[in-house]
Amino acid sequence: MDGIELEILWSNLISIVSEQAKALQRIAFSPVVREAGDLANALFDTQGRMVAQAITGTPGHINSLAAAGKHFVKAFPPETLHPGDVLITNDPWKSAGHFFDITVMLPAFHKGKLVGFFGSTIHHTDIGGYGVGAGARDIHEEGLWIPLLKLYDAGKPNEVLHEIIRVNVRTPDEVFGDLAAQISSGKLACTRLSALLDRQGHDNIETLAEEIISRSETATRNAIRKLKPGTYHGESSFDVPGGDVVTLKTAVTVDTETGSIIIDFDGSSGPSPYGINVVMNYTHAYSTFAIRSCLNPELPNNFGSLAPIIVKAPDGCIVNCKYPSPVNARHVVGMYVPMPILKALYHVMPDRVLAEGAGAVWTIQVQGKNLDGSPFISAMFNYSGGMGARRNKDGPSATCYPTGVAAVPVEILEASMPILFSRKELQHGTGGNGATRGGDGQIISFSMRTKSEWLLNAVTSRTTLAPEGLEGGEPGVAGRFLVNGQPVSSARKMVMQPTDEVMLATPGGGGYGRVAALPRAAE
């Protein structure tokens, strides 16, 4: 394909999926989508290969959405689809790793023929069951499982599925509002794609998709061939809710002959009895993110650029869990996946990696009764710690890495439920010292305006083992989770009293490099 035409078409595709994402974020009901940007949007070809993604979104959602494409195409062959169809699933092993993340896929038609799919994945307000948290004992306690189904069939709602969803969730209006946002933004993208094909005189995107994917794969393999070949090792340990310690080990093999990178998690911790287990889709998502962010972040993220990165893990280990493992809080472990990979990459490209950071965002969900007796349940809201330092720059403070989501403003939270924040500020000095410093964590304190008991799901980590420094940098400061001033470590829902005060202090990131020795004072 002519390079100029390719650039014109490519920029239009990015514009379309990014407009889809912006529309979804504007009209979503869930604050974690609307305010924090916990979403992913992408265009797929008729084979289910991701061609282009929006410029916003989280790695865990985007690259898991990429993996979901092949499952939708297998379940719904192109010849069985019609205009007006809407496909849906939240199967953890076929999409984004837990029930809260619902993936919606819209077949895109042009002149009566299927030309591709527009997909989106977002975190929904509620999916029934246990709620946000790690306390379920198996996946069936965690909520409603939606297999690969049609939510709409040729424009007509699947009434049985709609009713099943409605009676299984606590906040049906919000859930269906978010589903409507996913569908309407997908329809917008389908309309924009058809208009682009008309404008450029094309009947489909097959040639375009093949050109984008093949060029991306070739460029990625060429970038890998420039690296030092060999196998490099990294290891990261961290404590999780309940006090257990999880260890992730990686062997990263750079194969310059084939232009591929193989990541093997052999030796990592076994499955957890709590809902922090990770499916391979999610592990693959954050593994490929770690490689791509260091190797060639300027290249498009699609099926081609992800193909040269191969991820392996022993069956049943904590980052390749099997049914019926609980997975609701899979981000607690999944967001640490890049850490041992970056330690391995330090031996290959030390200028592009960073020291360990706080890792997983701390997620909170509260549930109880308002002062008037009416029930409330919050959507998940997040708090981040400090990022690890880079070789030439300090780590950013209170920044969600690697997920990239923002924090929901306290004003939004206080307006939507009976919560009262008394403190939210940076915790200066918690980042590890070094030639460059790790980012600082933050302190958040809140109580609930209620007269009755309420429930707290607090999913924390690194309250014992602080993020390590790199190349002689000092560790950051571990986090703290206090209720009425007393340390708490719990993987399950906690019953709280009306006067209880919760304080969260997120960890600081590790430093990079040794601090230069101070000159000796004159005698």
Keyword list:
523 residues, alpha+beta, Beta-Lactamase, 2 domains, seven-stranded antiparallel beta sheet, five-stranded antiparallel beta sheet, 11 helices
Describe the protein's topology.
Elements: H1 3-27, H2 31-34, E1 39-44, E2 50-53, H3 59-75, E3 86-89, E4 101-110, E5 113-123, E6 149-153, E7 156-157, H4 159-168, H5 172-200, H6 206-225, E8 230-239, E9 245-255, E10 260-264, H7 280-295, H8 303-306, E11 309-312, H9 331-334, H10 338-345, E12 362-369, E13 375-377, E14 381-383, H11 410-416, E15 419-427, E16 441-448, E17 454-459, E18 480-483, E19 486-487, E20 494-496, E21 502-505
Parallel strand pairs: 10-11
Antiparallel strand pairs: 1-2, 1-5, 3-4, 3-6, 4-5, 6-7, 8-9, 9-10, 12-13, 12-14, 12-17, 15-16, 16-21, 17-20, 18-19, 18-21
Helix pairs in contact: 1-5, 3-7, 4-5, 7-10
Shape: globular
How would a textbook summarize the main sheet?
7 strands, antiparallel
Mean pLDDT value: 95
Protein structure class: alpha+beta
Number of domains: 2
Which CATH first-tier class of the largest domain would you pick?
Alpha Beta
Q: Short description, anyone?
A:
By secondary structure, the chain is of the alpha+beta class. Helices cover 28% and strands 23% of the residues. The chain has 2 domains: 3-215, Beta-Lactamase, CATH 3.30.450; 354-515, no CATH class.
